[in-house]
Amino acid sequence: MGHCRHLRSGVHRLRDAVMDGGTSFPVSHRHVLIIGGGASGALMAVHLLRSSAATRVTIVERSQMLGCGVAYSTENPDHLLNTRAQNMSAFPDDPDHFVRWLAANEETKDATPTCFVGRQIYGRYLASLIAIWRDDRLRCVAGECLKVEETSSGIAAQIDDGTTVLADLAILATGHAVPGPSAQDVRSGWDFSPPSGKHASVVIIGTGLSMVDHIVSLLGNNHRGPVTCLSRRGLLPQVHAEGHASPFSRAEVPLGASVSHLLKWLRSRVRATEVDGGTWRDVVDGLRPHVTAIWRAWDTETRRRFLRHAASWWEVHRHRMPPQSAELIARARASGQLEIVKARFDDATHLGVRTTVLITPVGAPQHPIMADHVIDCRGIRRNPATDGAPVIVDLLKRGVGRLDALNLGVDTTEEAQLVSAGGLASEHLFAIGPCARGALWEITAIPDIRAQCAALADTICR
Predict the structure, then answer these.
(1) Cα–Cα distance between 416 and 209 in angstroms, integer?
(2) Which DSSP symbol is given to 225?
(3) Average pLDDT, stretch 101-106?
(4) What is the mean pLDDT of residues 382-398?
């Protein structure tokens, strides 16, 4: 399970946390339950514990790898962060924290602030942040939270081993909605099982960063067979390059403007920046601090229009790939091993040892292609009501929570309070990170999640 497997010895079950929530914590401490121990949950815990000595935290996480989550539990050292080390600190008020951590460790002491380190290493960093608090004001429960209910004094969470954890507040940090195994023998984008042979034909549905990871894995394992990647627009993530974020004031950004007007403004800023010797990357990076404000200023229909027409273009420029990964992909395309096809995925049928993939290419009739190995990398926009964590599915079924208007995740207020089916904001239930994407849109990258965690910790601890 990679470097995070050693955390198991520090994971404790709260078998006695039934009825009276019995723990060794002082009664005067506010007790916060965090459901999910991946990146969002780990960052939330650390910010809470740093913010107030009168706060205690319990994390419920089914995996043995606290702090790692889906993204950082990879065992492949070639799966790199798609953000430079200098931007990956866990703390907005200490931007060099991760760089100092790298320098203090023998294995990573030569890493530079501008390099792209392995995601496995970043998982170790997050785990180390959790480790310093364990057995003090932090407890960890190894299990799956199935249900959380509000009580007269707080919340009660039901764990899959039959125990109940009581707390004053609960924060949902369950991460991305990950679909289960497909009956059509199409593998999840998080399943890195190798093909049956080095010369097997591979089809990857989607051409985003998940696809990049799979190409890196295949080529790193000396795969020789053909790889076909499908997406409607055939867009690949752009490549990181040197640059400096353009400074924008909030007054310069056309908040509330239509999608077309905003894009027109953005293109004009790119042209002006290029005249001054910069690139579009400087403009995109400069706009990042204002993306949430742009999203919040749009009504639901404008947001829907953005998702339909512009989100794919924005994401390939906003979420870029490291140069090392880009070079691998470029070589594979140049050799003819890798082909990017503009096509809609329609269906997949498993027949014998192969899979028939039905696609509709742009401007062409539907036709089948045969593959030995098919991977679904269509990204993170899944249905939380069916693919979400069990506790999310339960909350939605009971009406304790609801999906946002665009079904991106559970609905929350701007302060991360869970909103019920009746439109009421909870006083005891919160949701952060990718599982509550609808309120903020850009809340899937560490720089965004850490800011949300710091703000919510400040609110709770005040």
Answers:
(1) 27
(2) S
(3) 95
(4) 87
